[in-house]
Every structure is written in C-alpha cells, then in structure tokens.
Amino acid sequence: MVQDTVPPQARIFDRRLLRDRRGRAAGELHAHDFLLTEIAERLADRLSDIARRFPVALDLGARDGILARTLQGRGGIETLIQSDASLVNARRGDLVADEELLPFKEQSFDAILSNLSLHWVNDLPGALAQIRSSLKPDGLFLASLFGTGTLQELRTSLMEAELAETGGASPRVSPFADLRDAAGLLQRAGFALPVADADAVTVTYGDFFALLRDLRGMGETNILFDRLKRPTRRTVFAHAAAIYQERFADAQGRLPATFQILFLTGWAPDPSQQQPAKRGSGKASLKDLFES
Question: Read out DSSP for 84-101?
C-alpha cells in the first residue's frame, strides 16, 4: 500500500482519494482522455526536438499508458517504464510509484517524463528534487501540469453559486502552480538549464454537466483536504450552470473551459553541460559596441 508521506499540517491534497478516483476512472478513461492525449502529443513534440537517445526512461503517472501510445518510438526512448500511484493503473504498466515518495535508486534513469500528474503533489519542490536525484547525470526531466488559470470559468461559477445558495463557499478547484515560479522551482530542486513555458487550451462544451462528467472521467475532480465533506446541494450546481451559461457562453451558446498547461524542462547537472561565463570574463568593452 502507498503511504502518505507529507505531514498532515502540510497536506493540501488528499492523495489517497486521488488514487481511489484515478482507479475508478481507469475503466472508462478512453472516453474522456482527449485532453490527456492532446497534451501528451505536445510533450512528445518537445521531446522530439531534443537530438538525444534515452536508453531507459520513466513515465511517472502513466495512467493507462497514454504517453507511451503517443510516443510510439519517438523521442529517442529505447525502454519506457510506466508507473502510477493508482494500483489499478499500475497493473497495466510496470510498477506502483507515488510522486511524493519515489522508490528508485539514485541515477536510475536517462529521462523522466510526466504528463498531467504532478499538479496533485503536496510538496512539489520535494517531488522535483526526488526526480532530479533519480536521473543519471545529464538526464532529462520533461513534464506537463495544470497551471494557474486552469478552469477559471468553473471556479467563478461554482463560488458565486455556492455563496448565493448557502451563504458560504468551499474550495472546489485546486490552487495550481504559476508559470512565473515554475523555472525557479526547477532550479531550487537542483536542475540545470531549467525552462518553463505555457500553453492555453480551451475546450468547449454543450452544457455545464458535460464538463463535470469529463473531469470525473479523467479522475480530475476535487481532492482538496478542505473540500466540502457532504454532498453539494443540487441547487448549487443548477445555479452554477446558469452563471456559466450567462457569463461565459460563446456566440453559439457553447461553454469554454480553459486549461493552462505548464511545460517544465530540466537536466540533471553534469560537468559536460554548457556553463554560464564567469562574471567579469568578457573580452569586449561596451564602448566598442557603439559608434563614436
């Protein structure tokens, strides 16, 4: 059994609930995995831009093998080991591994990839440090995760509806990482050459409840420890649907759902990597760059 490793006072997410929901979603994931597949494709494109071979790579948070199916031999990966925190998904891959407590020896992999999984980690800097430790020198880390701004329309609609119907609002959409901090987190975890960039993906739905069904089908529903622990009133969802329609519907009446995707790239340090020049080592004078 995977144990929770973060002290209770530091927990934001209920990881046990996440594993349960990912497991329940596994059987019908193929009917709701279009976003996971799209982002896996973008991750694969980034990997293909790197002219390297990776003899042994890890897919961390593999679900049912979406990234492996997308890669299909692309990106220089010779052997891809698939891991997931959910026992149900892990049976389809190679092993059980929770992002908060990696079971691998130091310098085990030439590359570690993760597609839309790390946003549910309580201690992201700690998880990144474990990932870096699991990489061989000059090994690659490449990941996607949801960032700030994801599901902003849903967050607004649910908050306003719950306030109106109950007089209070409970946390319903995860606090996601910010692009401005992402490269800094990689650097803090000991990665060399850290890079972070973002894509915005907008998916449109015919109705509010279709969006909720997709989130449930992906195993991406609310796992915040401070979430409402009793069933939400139906009137809250009905009111939220009305707000969403009135506030955000496009000209055709369809409802947009925004997903902000962060892409993180970093390398395990190695002496062979290009190093920044030492301060003061420049040979050109600034005055030589300008005409007199």
Answer: ESSHHHHHHSSEE-BTTB
